[in-house]
Amino acid sequence: RRRLAPLNEDNGRFLLLAALIAGYLSAGATVFSVLESPSEAAAQLRWNRTLQNFSRIFNISLPELRAFLRSYEAAMAAGIRVDALRPRWDFPGAFYFVGTVVSTIGFGMTTPATVAGKVFLIIYGLFGCAGTILFFNLFLERIISLLAFIMKACHERQLRRSGLLPPNFRRGPAMSGVGSLVGWKPSVYHVLLILGIFAITLSCCASAMYTMVEGWNYIDSLYYCFVTFSTIGFGDLVSSQNAAYQNQGLYRFGNFIFIFMGVCCIYSLFNVISIVIKQVLNWVLKKFECRCCPKCHKSSTRLSRRNAITPGARLRRHNISVDADGQYDSDTEGRRLSGEMISMRELTASNKVSLAILQKQLSETANGYPRNVCINTRQNGFSAGVGALAIMNNRLAETSDSR
């Protein structure tokens, strides 16, 4: 009988995270249902009582009154309000709209009403959202590089004070800020603390501005900042929507700067938190492995070596397979002498990983990064790929499986 291969670490982490997200969603739904359901029922009861009183006092039937209210709701959806508001589709309003589209905030207070506008939005958002996500990733890479440069300078200063570094030590001209001390990387937890403090400070300053200009209370302003900066964008509170403000041009500029910086900062913070969550998942998986009996653990290890490609072994297997292909005409003979049962599927996967590593090395070399640093970097999981997780794994410490 054919035995099924056990789950490797990546699949185990994925399933564990899926289970935790499902539980997190269920817990959140329970809490919000308990908190908001009584208020919703009370508001519905008050509204029904108001409708009945209005119908009785002004001698209007309830069906006619409900038809009028449906027309009012349609006007609300089209952006028509009783009080004077700013034009929705002049150039500043349209610029505000496209900004919320490409950043995926999507307040919903302005939506295209024409067929041509809806079709153009689909095409416009496809490239705009992709380009903005790329910009967020580049911003993340640069903010991490800046923090790494500052933290490395502080680390070198601390080493000089402790006498572990010569006083006349200087960074080499070929070394960038990240690679001046070989083997040292900034801690992900220190970066998390710095980004958290910056995000809180930015939100507090923006909330103070919205409280003074929009007239909201401070809690509502903080709520708006989080919903906007995290690109959730409910649309129940939207800034810069009145017809006129005092110092309107200055306020619109400040509003744009706060939203722009807030979205970039919270995006970076979310990615750092995701690394911490990944560390917690790795710790839970190791705890599960420790509870297994030694016999099962050994058999699982043997099966995983035969049927799964572990992140640390892909590059080694690729090197062995290349040597074997150069010496043996038979693929079976090469696999037997290499000590591993590598199928063609595994060989293709290892080639893709090695190609990604090579592309990363060429890119870092072209941008002035030290060649030995990018070669000696541990490639765990998808750290050689592209995206926010790859940036964090390559830039920060405490992201490897050994920690």
TrEMBL record:
What family is this protein classified in?
Belongs to the two pore domain potassium channel (TC 1.A.1.8) family.
Q: Would you kindly state one Gene Ontology biological process term found in this protein's UniProt entry?
A: stabilization of membrane potential
The main location class comes to membrane
The GO terms this record gives for MF are:
metal ion binding; outward rectifier potassium channel activity; potassium ion leak channel activity
Specify the species. Answer: Pitta sordida (Hooded pitta)
Q: Where is the Potassium channel domain?
A: 86-143, 199-278
Q: Which reaction does it catalyse?
A: K(+)(in) = K(+)(out)
Q: What is this protein called?
A: KCNKC protein
Which superkingdom does the taxonomy of this entry point to?
Eukaryota
Q: Where in the cell is it found?
A: Cell membrane
